Amino acid sequence: MKKTMRKAITLICALAFTAGPLLDAATAQADVARPTSNMSRIKDLAEVEGVRQNQLVGYGLVVGLQGTGDSLNNSPFTRQSLTGMLERLGVNTRGANLRTANVAAVMVTANLPAFSTQGTRLDVTVSALGDSNSLEGGTLLVTPLMGADGEVYAVAQGSVAVAGFGFEGDAARIQRGVPTVGRISNGALIEREIEFSLAEKRHLRLALRNPDFTTARRIATAINDFIGDDAAAPSDPSTVHLRIPESYGGNMIELLTEIEQLRVEPDQPAKIVVDERSGIIVMGRDVRVSTVAVAQGNLTVTITEEPQVVQPLPFSDGETAVVPRTAIEVFGEDGQLAVVPEGVTLRELVDGLNALGIGPRDLIAILQAIKAAGALQADIEVM
């Protein structure tokens, strides 16, 4: 009986000591496989050299408008374009008095995606160029779309879809959205491709969307650890040079497909972005302040206009007059002095400043004053 108990105790202890490292290893492996909330994919942090869109622009005419087009007297470019278009169609209107209001001159814009092939379609945006009131119901005539090099890469044509509308009468007007801007879904046909052979590249550059020394180094380290070779190296805060290793057989597409899914924790500088026009304040998570005391006072000025009517004396030649009466009151409120301790987090900083009962515009002035005092370890960017 005692031997049986000893064997059971020995077996239980052996299982306990064996299961402990197994559980710890499984937990550690699960922690490594589970991405943290601050980690992002490389494809979301950087762009590949050469994989980009190209802007296209063109000038055209929209016809079929219900009297909401350009007035030809005020838009000479519309008159010239209309006359030239009719002449190409065999209609001579030179010297004629054109009074149509169903035509509008427009600018057509589009983005040519990377690796777009000939014959595919893309969306275009149509914007009025003259004094047209609305493009609703109009049709864009054939419009060549050119790139920055002056070459035609696509041709646009189709019915314009306008989301906004506007109506007016003799004494009132209502408008929603912008009726002078429309869109044509799949309205352009690609006629020329941009040659770029990505698969044959032996070296590429990854351009960081938010340049940073630490983030560039972390991206290069993650790629080298995954490949097992020194294939990536940062050259500056915004660029990581990538060399295709021999194990991938010269296939750059396969290499990019694998490394773009790697997760890296980006590093952000301590920065506060301020928009004084709208009162918007955006703070980074690494913003820190030294010990500083803050006080804020409010000054309220109330101006009341109470005009009085003054009557002339009886049987006099005077006239009734209105005499202005203005009352001005000034109220001053002294704010309390609040101490912001050293090394507080972003949440504690915001909570402490909100406790003073101040608005966004006063908060902007306080942050700038703390920065001027040298107690704010962050950069303030005013938009």
What is the count of β-strands? 25
| Overall pLDDT score | 79
Strand content: 25-35%
- Structural class from helices and strands? alpha+beta
In whole angstroms, the N-to-C terminal distance is: 84 Å
Sheet with the most strands: spatial strand order: 3-4-5-10-7-6
Helix content, binned percent? 10-25%
How many domain regions?
Answer: 3
Radius of gyration, CA atoms, in whole angstroms: 35 Å
* Overall shape: flat
GO molecular function: structural molecule activity
Subunit structure: The basal body constitutes a major portion of the flagellar organelle and consists of four rings (L,P,S, and M) mounted on a central rod.
Function: Assembles around the rod to form the L-ring and probably protects the motor/basal body from shearing forces during rotation.
Signal peptide: 1-30
